[in-house]
User: Fold ATP-dependent zinc metalloprotease FTSH 10 mitochondrial-like from Quillaja saponaria.
Amino acid sequence: MSQFKYYFNFGSAESFEAKLEEAQKLLGVDPDNYVPVTYASQVDCYKVVMNFAPMALFLAFLWYTGRYMGQKISADFERSDNKIVKMLKARVTKVFFKDIAGCDEAKQEIMEFVHFLKNSKKYEDLGAKIPKGALLVGPPGTGKTFLARATACEVGVPFLSISGSDFMEMFVGVDFAGADVANVCNEVVLIAARHDRSEITMEHFEAAIDRVIGGLEKKNKQISKLERRTVAYHEAGHSVAGWFLEHAEPLLKVTIIPRGTATLGFTQYIPNENCLRTKKQLFDMTCVTLSGRAAEQNDLEEVTKMIYDQVVVYGFSDKVGLLSFPQRNDASAMTKPYSSTTSAIINSEVREWVSKAYDHTVQLIEEHKKHVAELLLEKEVLHQEDLVRVLGECPFKSNEPTNYDKFMQGFVEEDKGEN
Assistant:
């Protein structure tokens, strides 16, 4: 038998056997001596590895990614857990509100949470929704952590201190959403329970509205007599103008009590329910805004915008004509759709209209501002009945009842029914 091995390629096994048999017949080989043909199955390891290599690499990538992310998340929580355990084990000096000097207004507000936690059933019986927490805002070193520690000690619960960065790493998306009406109603219940009342009155509603729209009353805010008198005359100007102008929004209350977000005082009006406004209505609204003798910056900004809208947008100016150039806030707003000549006319008209409104306002409030300001300095808060005694009945009253009139009429009918 030959020791040589021959390797060659062929297409089909059946075709190869047929040609081999035909060749042996032509050579006259005895069929019993035909070359035996056997088949042996062999696996090409290289091809197998190359076929499965992409799938193996993909699975390895998924495994590594999952393991890495799992370790990272676990490490974040373990780090926070270690800090909490460390805080729980550490001996922290107990701090109470009596140990904190100053911060009287902040302590007064944060002490409400202590009362909530200690007397939660009292508030729940009145239907109050107990706050889930408080946000202490202020520059570093003003006592935020100190107040939080005192709150925990007063209630007798653990105090856990975690930095804001660690908190945001673990829990992202802390959000706040709510309706002002719901906030007012809930604040009403809290105020009633705070004063040990079993029923809610209109006084509680007024106090809740003042707190929601104006912030916490700043009882300890130091104001000089000159500043207080200036604020009183400023708010008196708004009150007198709103009282004697036909198209001004009905005046509800004026106060010079400092509050958190309302600076040193504010005048509260009943929103006008008219959908359309005439040129005379806009003029009266401008006069009311200008009626503060010491006009604040936000008053002047509002007046400027109102007058520009009348001249540029609504087409109320005879000199500019029936043209409208709506104000745009995008990048193209830098390019005005009118010439420099038209711009000069618009600016001249705005100055003239503001001057006219201011002169009319000064003439209107000159006679009555002193009486209102002196009474405001004496009482700090004036309601409609107080203004009626000083200014007389409002000369302009709508024949159509507003939603506020219907609301107050409901209370009157309820009182009659009880009596």
The longest strand covers residues 251-255.
